Amino acid sequence: MKIMVIQGPNLNMLGVREQNVYGPMKLEQIHEQMRGFASQNGIEIEFFQSNLEGEIVDKIQECLGDADGIIINPAAYTHTSIAIRDALAAVSLPAIEVHISNIHAREEFRQKSLIAPVCAGQISGFGPFSYHLAMVAMLQILNEIKAMKEMQQKKQQAGQA
């Protein structure tokens, strides 16, 4: 199993920017915690961060055939990017949208996500722990997909016997 973690604009500034909203933890510290969870659960994990919308779209498209699921924090693009939304819909991989802050308790313009409708779910408001919750959720989704595929294979084999 492989999970691609895609981080949007300004997340490279975690630990520096608006600590009252996002906390003191740096992005690399969050990734290190995610690596630990992935290692304990036999998951391959890769990280990507960009401030550029097109690069994020390219990375999502590259996931097709290379990753089993996507955890994405589109950051400010959450509220504006039809391109990222369309890329996620196009690859049809399980995706989970993550936010450190509770976007629904913030400014009105941050409360609408264009990305959430094409994701399996959205996790927001738990600080950096939101990423851990996303890892647990993605592991569950991927295990369910694997179990369904195995069941379908057994049915096919039984039908051929």
TrEMBL record:
<protein>
    <recommendedName>
        <fullName>3-dehydroquinate dehydratase</fullName>
        <ecNumber>4.2.1.10</ecNumber>
    </recommendedName>
</protein>
<feature type="binding site">
    <location>
        <position position="110"/>
    </location>
    <ligand>
        <name>substrate</name>
    </ligand>
</feature>
<dbReference type="GO" id="GO:0009073">
    <property type="term" value="P:aromatic amino acid family biosynthetic process"/>
</dbReference>
<dbReference type="Pfam" id="PF01220">
    <property type="entry name" value="DHquinase_II"/>
</dbReference>
<dbReference type="GO" id="GO:0019631">
    <property type="term" value="P:quinate catabolic process"/>
</dbReference>
<dbReference type="InterPro" id="IPR036441">
    <property type="entry name" value="DHquinase_II_sf"/>
</dbReference>
<feature type="binding site">
    <location>
        <position position="86"/>
    </location>
    <ligand>
        <name>substrate</name>
    </ligand>
</feature>
<keyword id="KW-0456">Lyase</keyword>
<dbReference type="InterPro" id="IPR001874">
    <property type="entry name" value="DHquinase_II"/>
</dbReference>
<keyword id="KW-0057">Aromatic amino acid biosynthesis</keyword>
<comment type="function">
    <text>Catalyzes a trans-dehydration via an enolate intermediate.</text>
</comment>
<feature type="binding site">
    <location>
        <position position="79"/>
    </location>
    <ligand>
        <name>substrate</name>
    </ligand>
</feature>
<comment type="similarity">
    <text>Belongs to the type-II 3-dehydroquinase family.</text>
</comment>
<dbReference type="GO" id="GO:0008652">
    <property type="term" value="P:amino acid biosynthetic process"/>
</dbReference>
<comment type="pathway">
    <text>Metabolic intermediate biosynthesis; chorismate biosynthesis; chorismate from D-erythrose 4-phosphate and phosphoenolpyruvate: step 3/7.</text>
</comment>
<feature type="active site" description="Proton donor">
    <location>
        <position position="99"/>
    </location>
</feature>
<keyword id="KW-0028">Amino-acid biosynthesis</keyword>
<feature type="binding site">
    <location>
        <begin position="100"/>
        <end position="101"/>
    </location>
    <ligand>
        <name>substrate</name>
    </ligand>
</feature>
<comment type="subunit">
    <text>Homododecamer.</text>
</comment>
<feature type="binding site">
    <location>
        <position position="73"/>
    </location>
    <ligand>
        <name>substrate</name>
    </ligand>
</feature>
<dbReference type="GO" id="GO:0003855">
    <property type="term" value="F:3-dehydroquinate dehydratase activity"/>
</dbReference>
<dbReference type="InterPro" id="IPR018509">
    <property type="entry name" value="DHquinase_II_CS"/>
</dbReference>
<feature type="site" description="Transition state stabilizer">
    <location>
        <position position="17"/>
    </location>
</feature>
<dbReference type="GO" id="GO:0009423">
    <property type="term" value="P:chorismate biosynthetic process"/>
</dbReference>
<feature type="active site" description="Proton acceptor">
    <location>
        <position position="22"/>
    </location>
</feature>
